[in-house]
Amino acid sequence: MSSETPVMKCTEEQMARHKIPVAYRDYCAHLLIRLNKCREQSLYMPWKCEHERHSYEVCEYKEFKRRQKLWQEQQDAKN
Q1: Distance from CA of residue 76 to its chain's centroid?
Q2: How many Å apart are CA 10 and CA 3, to the nearest integer?
Q3: In the predicted model, is pLDDT for residue 79 greater than 50?
């Protein structure tokens, strides 16, 4: 399979300390931690953390496309 697995940039302890829900503990969790810190510091004003939010959403999209490609490769290998 040509899709290489990305590297986790934060540990389970860091994710637990920052109260990241289990469903969001993926390869983009380090960006979610940064986004949540920005949100807390800016009192959740949406225009204050646009860059952090965009970075997180781009990462999630790339992760989705990676998983989709991996699934497709698995399906092709079955056939």
Answers
A1: 27
A2: 21
A3: yes
Report d(CA 79, CA 77) in Å as an integer: 5
Q: In degrees, to the nearest 5, what angle opens at C-alpha 4 toward C-alphas 65 and 30?
A: 70
Answer left, alpha or beta for residue 44, where phi above 0 means left and psi between -120 and 50 means alpha: left
Task: Output the pLDDT for position 3.
Answer: 58
Report residue 69 as tokens.
Answer: 């490609």
pLDDT of residue 1 exceeding 80: no
Structural tokens at position 53: 């939010």
For residue 27, how far is the Cα from the chain centroid? Answer: 5
pTM of the model: 0.88
What's the CA gap between 69 and 10, in Å, rounded? 24
